[in-house]
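Lab manual, section 2.4: Encoding a predicted structure.

Procedure: take the sequence of the chain (733 residues), apply the prediction step described in section 2.3, and record the output as structure tokens. A sample record is shown.
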Amino acid sequence: MDSRHLLGDDPVDAAGDELDRKRFSEHMIRVINRVRVQSESSVIALIGPWGSGKSSILGMVKDSIDELSVADDEKSPEWRVADFNPWIHSDSLSMYVGFYSELRACLPGGERWSEARESIGSWIQNAAPLGKLGGVVRVDASSAFEKLAEKVSGDTSSAAKKEKVEEALKECSVSILVVMDDLDRLTPEELLEVFKMIRLVGRLPNVYYLLSYDEKTLMDVLCRTDLAFADQGRARSYLEKMVQVRLDMPALGDAQRAHLVNSSLSAVLENNAISLPEASLTAIASLWREAFSARLTTPRAIRRFFAQVDSSYVTVADEVNFVDFLALTFLRTHEPRLYYGLQEHREELTMTAGIRTIGLQNESPKDRLNRWNVYVQSWDVAQENADGVLAILAKLFLPLRSALEGMEYGRDWLVDVAKGKGVGHTDYFSRYFFFGVPSDDIPDSVVDAALDSISQGEDSDRIPWLLEVLEKDPERIVRKVHNYGDLGVKGNRRILLLMAEKYFAIPNDIGFLSSFSRTSIEGFAADLFVEGKPEPLRESLDVIVQSDGGYCMAVRGLRRATSRANRSGREEVSQRLTEDAKRIISERFENSKNRDIASIDQGVFSSVHTWAEIDSAAVIEFLRGQAESATWPLVDIVDRLVTRGTTSARPGMVLMGLEDHTVESALGLGYVFEHLSTEIDNASTDVLMEGLPDTPENRRSVALAALSFSRHRRQEAENEPGEGEAEGQGSVD
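Recorded output:
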């Protein structure tokens, strides 16, 4: 099967018959021939649901009806087929003209049958015994109608009696099979008109009818007529009077359905050059068992579904997970309201923190399942399909898998979802609803091309693009680098160097609805450092820390890596990382000791906090030495120790105060109080300690005010009465 079979809805002929329907069409022909033997006119119905292949069967019957005759009797009259589609006619008048035109066209040619053709054509003008057709079509047979009849009959001679038509047809050496497909498309009024035409004026000798319809739909149409008055019993009784022989379309067997599904899926995979691993095929089989099979029961339903997949996958090829795309396409095709409703719950489904998910954090799996059952009902999913729909959603989204299975799938599972480009991850969700990669997204194919070049040590025009995007959306890029896998020894070092190049260009603040931050890069570096990558780590660090950005990234990455190693009980790794951090920090400050302190980037100087946590004594010795040698004024050292951070109240980096323990571990509070007593005495304490912009003047004001408060607290503590002494009383010798 190829894409033409998927995207088209034309009836299938015997040459394209994949479901062995030719055998059923031969059975139908035998039945039709048997009916002809037993009756001079009859109505046969081919009944089956929409999309079950009725039109294909009718086509096979029409193509080969003469191939099989009753008992191979060579004297059996010839079959002629009249294709008549009442639903293409605009009114009853044109329908009658069309019917008799088709009937007349089926008569043999030649002089012998001219009288029969003349009789049928003339009868249109009278349609005996109904006069001017008022009894059936409820219109006046005016001169306009006579002109229409003239076009069919070829003359304007007086109308023949119906008996003359019947006699002419009895003498014919042909049997006429009038095929009417898709009767269920008609309106209630049109359907009754067709049945009246067949029953009252169309039951002619050697004229047989083969009707085709979906019985449920046709019954619904009949129930809307004045004949049935919404009474199913009356409608069925009427239909049984009309149809003498019913032939029901055979349901697809399991083997036939499996063949059609497999061939359709193979066509999609071939058309899109997709190769699926065994795990994906297993996942598709699971979707089929739990949801698809109950809805894909007819050839049309199967082809229509895979046609949807085939026609739209090209827009996101290689940028999404094919199995997830298959599942979402199923929901889009069969449950469009649910498909659109899912987009309103993106934050919850992708486990992304947001306003809508705040109240759901303590929800139990059972409560979550109940809530989603309500959602599914509100999206008009039929009750009998609800379990299948929830089964699909559970395969796509971790929160719903947790709800259905009664257990929690934590955020760690999102790593695998992202690696598989699943719809349940925030980086990929929009692609499944956008039919492509949105403008604010980053195509995996371009990222992978850049990373291929990096891992192979090659230059590529994709690398500058990657750096530009890294600056705008570091968290997303870092996740994609993670998902790519190990870049190798040189590749890991190179990607860290590239990240270091952009480190200071990344805004290190929190904006409204944004997540621009350097922490994602620091976390990526920490992952590599914990595992000792790039190897050898010491030599790689020496290269990375040459730039200020690389140095800051490395220090903070090592600090994060040490914390992770401690939490996982990896003491040897923690010790190694601590020594590496101490080495590169001490070397950087040693190399900077003769520089003006104002020329040292604040981000670089802030690493003194990490150094103080690792080796407080070494930091105190170094900084006091710098102060006492007058290389770095002590007040300048102190104000550089003021902590910086971010706040939602102000954009950019702001000052967050000076902590006592920071001064104690870096210089010693007593030492600072002694050597900066004059500056502290003169400092203003009317200073906003948190939220001021990061400027040298503000740092100096915040630092001295903080020291003033700290010294005052110490003095109060020293002047408090000792234990057991009453306040205001002195000691007695």
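Check your result against the sample. The chain is about 55% helix and 5% strand.
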